[in-house]
Amino acid sequence: MPYDPTKMADWQISEEAEKNMPSPFDWQKKLGLQADEILPMGRLCKLDFMKIINRLKDKPDGKYIEVTAITPTPLGEGKSTTSLGLIEGLGKRGKNVGGCLRQPSGGPTMNIKGTAAGGGNALLIPMTEFSMGLTGDINDIMNAHNLAMVALTARMQHERNYTDEQLERLTKMRRLDIDPTRVEMGWIIDFCAQALRNIVIGLGGRYDGYTMQSRFGIAVSSELMAILSIVRDLKDLRERMANITVAFDKRGKAVTTGDLEVAGAMTAFMRNTINPTLCCSAEYQPVMVHAGPFANIAVGQSSIIGDRVGLKLFDYHVTESGFAADIGFEKFWNVKCRYSGLKPHVSVLTTTIRALKMHGGGPKVVAGLPLPEEYTKENVALVEKGIENMVHHINTIRKSGMNPVVCINAFHTDTKDEIAVVRKAAEAAGARCALSEHWLKGGEGALELADAVIDACEQKSEFKFLYPMEMKLRDRVALIAKEVYGADGVSWSPEAEAKAKMLEADPKYDDFATMMVKTHLSLTHDPTIKGVPKGWVLPIRDVLIYSGAKFLCPCAGTISLMPGTSSNPAFRRIDVDVETGKVMGLF
Question: Where does ATP bind (predicted)?
Fold first, then answer.
């Protein structure tokens, strides 16, 4: 170490690093775990989190570090790479450090985004297992979610085919009288399959199901994945599993998984998912992987369970928020930390010269196409024009009382003058700033970042939420729109406002989290608008109800729960060495 990422693909670096990867029993010794706290699964292992938490309940928590980003280009700006680089840098400084990242979806892995395993020398290993199912959590979620749909559609068929008397006598079920036009759930699959966004099911005869419109979403968009990210234990999981709204009856009453008597079986599929899987960085620092919720519509974080375990095991624990600070950090700040009761010490704002140039008016960045030369040649003026976006996110983090550290995620095309402009602006906005070359050099390249984070962790902070739970839904949305996005106000469609008023009037929803739904490619609802726009209003068209997760999701713009596969997807370059069985081509 370090390897040369200019000559080696990520999967090749992982393959080399895996030769010395600790075994489950090595981790037991290294982390001071008891034999029954490690659950071996091949060359990986899960951690029995309840046993670890109970044994270490009196141990003080370590330093809690969150990683977020400025508004990204469609290529992403390297939050996972920065998270892993920071972990490696803190390791080089001799710190007891670890982290928790989200599990990647097979959709992006086989499409254009890749596995979110980091990159270069700031890489999570073993990359093949991480990229292709890990220890089965997403499969368990798919089985549990789709079982709920099986229960729903079978119930609808039987209620159509049987009289009330026959239903009671033959099936021991009461009639739920489900409204086929108000089915809230669809099916899920872990690929980007646009052909399944809108489907018709139940074609055929009387015994071939109930004919109706339906849909598929990508697996990580399932409410079950959102639930996994916020539960505290198996009991909490079981209770939430019974409260998921699957549909509404013809009187407008919610039909839940509990009503369908399927929640117990769903929890049986999910029982192993509550324990985090232990992987590591390419420099062998421990990194848990747990949960992977869709950041547009859910919390977009690794799990509360993972963070609770990490804060007991490590002196410095690093966690990552999905998307930019207006979405990922805001949900970390006002939802995840509120649910967990944990108080973070510092937030790292991942920044790239490339993204700042885009916000400064640079040409459109399109995934899968070569970058225009404005992004690969020095252009200080473009950087200066785009810095306002970074400063906006710094100010958002500071509103939480946290200490921001700007990480300039270095690319070989960045110049000294461009870097100097960013550093000066970040420090003027009240943030520490560090240049980090973790992709190229691993932990050695992240020492400046590690030192800035260590320093920030020692500074006293007064963490506070943006709003109290007593605040009504529409007031919360207005505050988030103004203080986090920079909008002048909020406009509600008649349907969304009527639903919001209904929710505000029902005490049942008072403790539901506000989970904003909008694009990650802009501070606004419009992904084409870059920088920090002024004089705009956030439109809310609907409010989704996730009753198991206890989320109310105000929707700004249209968000598809099923992404599409591109014309040049990653699966075209993935293969298996038939001599060794090793997977090649992952990135």
Answer: 73-80
Identify whether 81 is a catalytic site residue: yes
Check whether 91 is labelled as a binding-site residue.
no
The tens digit of pLDDT for each residue in 51-80 reads 999 999 999 999 999 999 999 999 889 999
Superfamily of domain 477-555: Formyltetrahydrofolate synthetase, domain 3 (3.10.410.10)
Q: Does domain 137-270 have CATH number 3.40.430.10?
A: no
234: annotated binding-site residue?
no
DSSP state for residue 201 in the 8-state scheme: E
d(CA 94, CA 89): 9
User: Is 102 a catalytic site residue?
Assistant: yes
pLDDT digits (tens, 9 = 90+) for 161-170: 888 888 888 7
pLDDT per residue as tens digits for the range 69-128 = 999 999 889 999 999 999 999 999 999 999 999 999 998 899 987 787 899 999 999 999
List the catalytic residue out of 49, 439, 492, 551. Answer: 439
Tell me the per-residue pLDDT of 384-404, one tens digit each, with 9 for 90 and over: 999 999 999 999 999 999 989
Q: In the chain, pLDDT over 70 holds for what percent of residues?
A: 100
**Annotated binding-site residue? 202:** no
Q: Among 464, 584, 483, 574, which Cα is nearest to 111's?
A: 574
Beta carbons within 10 angstroms of residue 55's beta carbon = 13
What average pLDDT is seen over the chain? 95
Cβ-based neighbours of 20, under 8 Å, separated by 6 or more: 284
The active-site residue, picked from 323, 333, 512, 551, is: 323
75 among annotated binding-site residues: yes
Beta strand 277-281 pairing with 254-256: unpaired
CATH topology of domain 10-136+273-458: Rossmann fold (3.40.50)
Q: Is 113 a catalytic residue?
A: yes
Nearest partner of 563 among 196, 244, 86, judged by Cα: 196
153 is catalytic: no
For the chain, what are the domain ranges?
10-136+273-458, 137-270, 477-555
- For the question of residue 79 being annotated catalytic, the response is yes
Q: Of residues 49, 69, 71, 81, which has the active-site annotation?
A: 81
